[in-house]
Each structure stands twice: as C-alpha cells, then as structure tokens.
Amino acid sequence: MPAYLSKQSSILIVDDDINLIHMLSQILKDFGRILFATGGEKALEIAKEQKPDLILLDVEMAPMDGYEVCRSLKHDDAFGNCAIIFMTANVGMEVEVACLDAGAVDFIAKPFNPPVVRARVRTHLRLKHNSAALESLAQHDAMTGLYNRGYFNQAIESEYRRLQRHHLPLGIALVDIDYFKNYNDSYGHIAGDATLIAVAKALELATKRPGELVARYGGEEFVVLLPQVDKSILLQYGLMLCETVRALQIPHTASRCSQHITISVGLSLMTPSQDTSPSKLLEQADRALYQAKNNGRNRCQFFAELA
C-alpha cells in the first residue's frame, strides 16, 4: 500500500449529518485514520490538535458554515498545506468558484458516488504526500539527514525575531570535526562520509530540548540553534558535545590532538535586539571556534571568554 494510503494519513470529516459521516467513514476506512466533527468550532479544535492531512468539509452548516471554517484554517500558517475538499449538494459554477476562492483544492457533490469520493481523496492524499516529501528533501542534508544550511538560515531568522519580542536569549554552537581533511586523506572518503554521519547522529541525539535544532553547516561543520539558554547551560552543552563525540571512539591516527575523532566547538550567546542580528551571533560563534582551534582543538570556547 502506498505511504499516502496508510495509518500515517489522517482524514477529518466535517458535517452536521452524523449518518453522512458514518457513510464516508466506511468509504474511506482503508485510507488512514478517520476523525470527525459535526460543527465548525469543533472542526477547528480537532484540526489544531490533530493536524489532519486532508479535510472533507460540508459547505452548508450552521452557525459556522464551511467557507468560514476553511478561511479560518487558511489564515493559520500551520494549515497552509492542509488539503480541503468541500462537500455540497449545490452543484454549479458559482459554488465551484466560491469553494476554490475559499481555499479548497476540490469539491465533491452530494449525494456521493463512492468510487468518485475514493478517487478524489486518493489523488489529494498522494499530492499532499509528494509535496511533503519534496519539502523535506529541500530542507535536509542528503548525507546526514540533518537540516541543511538553507533551512537553518530561515530557522535562526525566525527564532531571532521571536526571542527579540520576548527579550529572551539565543545561543549558537558551531561545531567542526578536528583535522577532518587528514582523516579523509588517511582513511578515504567513504570512511569520511561514515564518520560525518556518525558525528551528525551523535549531535542530534545530544540535542533534545524543545526548540533546539541541529544542521549541517557545510563540509565537516555543524551548527546548533539553542533558544533560551544561559551561559552556564551553553558551556555545559558544549562540553557535553565534545565528550559525546570522543565517546564514539572512532580511530583517527592522523589527528594532531587525539588518537580518535574529536570536535572543536565555538559558543556564542546574546539577547536579540534591534542593535544585533543573527549574522552577528554566527560571527561570534565562528570567532570562538577559531580560538578553540588555536588553543589546541578538542574543546569548546565561549565567545565572551575571548580577550
């Protein structure tokens, strides 16, 4: 069975006729998890909690009709990619245009023709699945599976603005694998790729707080976004990353600082304001990383400690 027709998919049916909901549930029972609501307000509540892949939405409901429900969902960024199919007994060009103008991707006429319902739902679940897959590919590094630099740049801009509004601090950890060129020269690029993947996984497993994000920054460099930390927590995190990678015990006889793979980490911290910027935060982390390398590598360095 295709991934878009599985228990991973969820469909929300919204109609004030419970018998119709039961009928649709039977028609679509093998398409995924079925949710239902008999009114607009309840539909919005369930949609926000469950984030369905597809919504089948009745037009003629009271007091909140389908158009209003659809517009409410489309005004919320969290539902920008949610596929909505209207259901209506009023078939005609004006109704079709109104449905599409409200933000729906399709409409189904009542009374239902089960094969048509299944075909249209199948099509839009497939489109939703393919769109999500393409979006994921665009956001992730193909080798390590981490977020890529492009996604990180968007994330830090968004998080910077959010924390600026709330006057809360933002930390950055810039990570570099020590003497990685020497490693590739000695062990080969296949082993180098395996090591990059192993280090990436270790960094990801060590980064668990809500809002934290690990990305591959380029080559053998990684970057971590760390919202709402203080200096003590940031330093503990940097030390923990170094120890986590050392614990992998990956041999590196060509290293000048250890017999195993190690990392250097540059740390920076600031409370976002109009006088600073994400690029300044990254510049400070880069300077701290440079100092960590100058001090012998296999260590972390906090920017404020620089002379």
TrEMBL record:
Nucleotidyltransferase recorded as keyword: yes
GO molecular function, one term: diguanylate cyclase activity
The protein's Enzyme Commission number: 2.7.7.65
Domain GGDEF, first and last residues per copy: 168-305
Annotated Response regulatory domain residues: 10-125
InterPro entries named in the record: CheY-like_superfamily (IPR011006), Diguanylate_Cyclase (IPR050469), GGDEF_dom (IPR000160), Nucleotide_cyclase (IPR029787), Rev_trsase/Diguanyl_cyclase (IPR043128), Sig_transdc_resp-reg_receiver (IPR001789)
Catalysed reaction, written as an equation: 2 GTP = 3',3'-c-di-GMP + 2 diphosphate
CDD domains: GGDEF
SMART domains: GGDEF, REC
Gene3D superfamilies given in the database record: 3.30.70.270, 3.40.50.2300, 6.10.250.690
Modified residues (4-aspartylphosphate): 58
SUPFAM superfamilies according to UniProt: CheY-like, Nucleotide cyclase
Keyword terms, alphabetized: Nucleotidyltransferase, Phosphoprotein, Transferase
Name of the protein in its database record: diguanylate cyclase
Natural source organism: Undibacterium danionis
Lineage per the UniProt record: Bacteria, Pseudomonadati, Pseudomonadota, Betaproteobacteria, Burkholderiales
